[in-house]
Amino acid sequence: MNRTFGLSEFLFIVAAVRWTLLLSLVAFLGGGVLGLLIAILRTTSSRFVRLLTGGYIQLFQGTPVLMQLFLFYYGLSVLFDMQVDAWPAVALAFTLYSGAFLGEIWRGSIQAIPRTQWEASACLSLGYFQQLRFVILPQAMRISIPPTVGFLVQLIKGTSIAAIIGFVELTRAGQLMVNVTFKPMIIYPVVAALYFAVCWPLSLLARNLERRIDADLGIKRHL
Amino acid sequence: MHYAFHFNVVWDHWRDLAEGAWLTIQLSALAMTIGLVVATVCAYAKTAGPTLLRRVVTAYIELIRNTPFLVQIFIIYFSLPALGISVGANEAAVAAMVVNFGAYGTEILRAGIESISHGQIDAAKALGLSRLQTFRHVVLFPAMKTVFPALASQFILLMLASSIVSAISAVELTAATNSLVSTTFRPFEFYFVATGLYLTMALGFRALLGGVYWVVFMRRQRS
């Protein structure tokens, strides 16, 4: 006996949005800490450190997220000699994934700050970390906000892939409801609409912020 | 950790992996070729078309860019058959990739088209070129040159995202790996090697596209 697609099925899917958001938040915060570290290390003068962090970014940007998920899911099982839960594997994989992307975005923002800013703060006898903390990062942060919000959209959409290894978030909840109601024609568009409702405002925000910062910096774009 | 790694099992099945990788390359290349045509038409429509058409194209881009690729695949493969449009797994995979690449490609091309200065178009008009001739020779070719690196990155992202089509049983590299895993019970080894293959393909395509850029755009300029 098939269930029909009614209010309770709809609410089950809507409720799953929180797992998508929670996973995105965990990955974004963890990836943020990691990304900041990577961005700073990428701009240091040590060639070895730059090579190492560059390799990390290449590895995570040059392979599919799905493969990274599989590797962490099965890799953790191998490492601990037991079947691990989907949660830690998925959270870890997405954290490292967003660390690589945020690291690359923020490296660009740091390097966009003119060299003279470093030199001027050195002339004021600020130490390396003081230069970063008080002069470079506050300016770099401003220009990094729009692409960071843009990446957040990419991350939220990306977490849908966790459904493939059985982690129950928005997409997986949709799949589960399709399995009991056989109504893919209604359910998947509903799932897509929910993602759209979360991502579209963020995309618009990113675009507005970008326009405002461009205007402040005196950059004119053809529109 | 008491896990014994058996990479020789992977070597025994290299032929299946190679076939999967080949299908990944075929699907991605086909999707990019058709997707580029879609993107060109949409970019033309968005910059020079009537208002209604421009709105339709904008809606298409926003819808695709703010929903996950996995859900787009599910809609094409599972929802459309309910409307009587039934497609095989490979066809659905290519269709989803074309629709996805088309949206991102349109935005990239549009940015390139808008970077062409208006004097160029006026000059073409003065020479008596038709609108289509102007678009082809004066706008599209230089625009392509400007945005080629961005298009190349987008193609590599598409190739990596193609691993997600394994969810609808199109037997590309990821799906081939999955089925080998389920018969040999060596998940870590197979996913490790498959990830390495993806990385190799990503680096290989980047080098190849760099070569294409040089041959198509740089050499012609020199002679």
What is the structure about, briefly put?
Chain A is an all-alpha fold and 223 residues long.
What is the topology?
The complex is a heterodimer of chains A (223) and B (223).
Chain A: H1 7-15, H2 17-42, H3 47-61, H4 65-80, H5 86-112, H6 115-123, H7 128-158, H8 170-181, H9 184-217
Helix pairs in contact in A: 1-8, 2-5, 3-5, 4-5, 5-7, 6-7, 7-9, 8-9
Chain B: H1 8-12, H2 14-48, H3 51-65, H4 69-79, H5 89-114, H6 118-126, H7 131-161, H8 173-184, H9 187-222
Helix pairs in contact in B: 2-3, 2-5, 2-7, 2-8, 3-5, 4-5, 5-7, 6-7, 7-9, 8-9
Write structural notes for this entry.
The complex is a heterodimer of chains A (223) and B (223). Chain A has 223 residues and is an all-alpha fold. Chain A has one domain: MetI-like fold, CATH 1.10.3720.10. Chain A is 80% helix and 0% strand. Chain A contains nine helices and no strands. In chain A, helix 5 packs across helix 7 (128-158). Chain A is flat and about 75 Å long. Chain A starts with 6 loop residues before the first helix and ends in a 6-residue tail after the last helix. The mean pLDDT of chain A is 91. Chain B is mostly helical and 223 residues long. Chain B has a single domain (8-222), classed as MetI-like fold (Orthogonal Bundle), CATH 1.10.3720.10. Chain B has nine helices and no strands. In chain B, helix 2 packs antiparallel against helix 7 (131-161), helix 2 (14-48) runs antiparallel to helix 8 (173-184) and helix 5 crosses helix 7 (131-161). The longest helix of chain B is centred in the last third of the chain and has 36 residues, at 187-222. Chain B is globular and about 75 Å long. Chains A and B meet through helix 4, helix 7, helix 8 and helix 9 of A and helix 3, helix 4, helix 7 and helix 9 of B.
